[in-house]
Amino acid sequence: MTRLSASLELAKAVRHACPHAFIVLWHADAVEDPELRLSAFAAGANMVTCFGSHLDEALGKLGSIGRDRPPGGAAAACACPWCGQSGLTPDELWTHAPLHHVHDENRGGPCSVCGEAADNLAVHIHEEHWPGGPRREVRRGLGSAVVIHRKRDNKFLMVQEFAGQGFWVPGGMTDEGESIRASALRECQEEAGVDVAHWVDPATSKPVWRLVTFYSALEDEAAEAGWRPKTLPCFESAGACWVSLEQLARVPLRSARIPTAWYPHFAAGGAAKPLELPADALHLFPDVQF
């Protein structure tokens, strides 16, 4: 049995014995091997990382539960709908749920904070019980996606999506009043933990939904030095990982259209288009700040 296999078996045993445990797999390939990440989460891990700063942040969040309760604050009467951990305040449940259960399947049912029945408790807890008051997402039919290309080895940065939905490019819907470029920047930081600046290639998706795909090239190792792809789980994603074309064929994808269309194109040295909407697409985006 390899050390990795032994670690995964240990994770399974700990998870079986203690549903509330926070299990971390520390591995050098945490952001290089998507299959490793999937195997670890399937075995019961909550986090897969190789970055000490990310682990410190996770431990800080875990340590705040039960410690930072203000006098006269909300009663600790909430329970987690996934693992059953009880004695949580609403704010603690808001922290606990994505940190422990971002990879778990979505659940519906009554909320232990407000009693409301929700089809998706992960979204309900995140939006309705945000510390300080509700923050409901206004969903628009306009989004951005980003192809992030590491040229030295032709790997692409992908997001390990929530609820076990597989991998996809960093991306999502634009917020009210947000430009498409700003949306792309924000989604890269929220979902993949990186800041990018090289962009191209507008493309449309289905008639009702409009999607602009950008391209960002990581030209050399010096440019990569300050990068730390995300490994701290949160509501946005379970983390991010560099994925080769060979690995892409072996992992589940939330949607195959963008990765399978563009990754081979850019890996083969394909060109990117200018950072502007082509004239024949302008009529599709009359209301959009590019």
From TrEMBL:
Annotated transmembrane regions: none
PROSITE patterns in alphabetical order: NUDIX (PS51462)
Keyword Ribonucleoprotein found: no
One Pfam family named in its UniProt record: zf-Di19
GO process terms (BP): AMP biosynthetic process; ATP biosynthetic process
GO molecular function, one term: bis(5'-nucleosyl)-tetraphosphatase (asymmetrical) activity
This protein's record includes keyword Hydrolase: yes
Keywords per UniProt: Hydrolase
Nudix hydrolase domain sequence ranges: 139-266
PANTHER family in alphabetical order: BIS(5'-NUCLEOSYL)-TETRAPHOSPHATASE [ASYMMETRICAL], DIADENOSINE 5,5-P1,P4-TETRAPHOSPHATE PYROPHOSPHOHYDROLASE MUTT
Protein name, entry field: Nudix hydrolase domain-containing protein
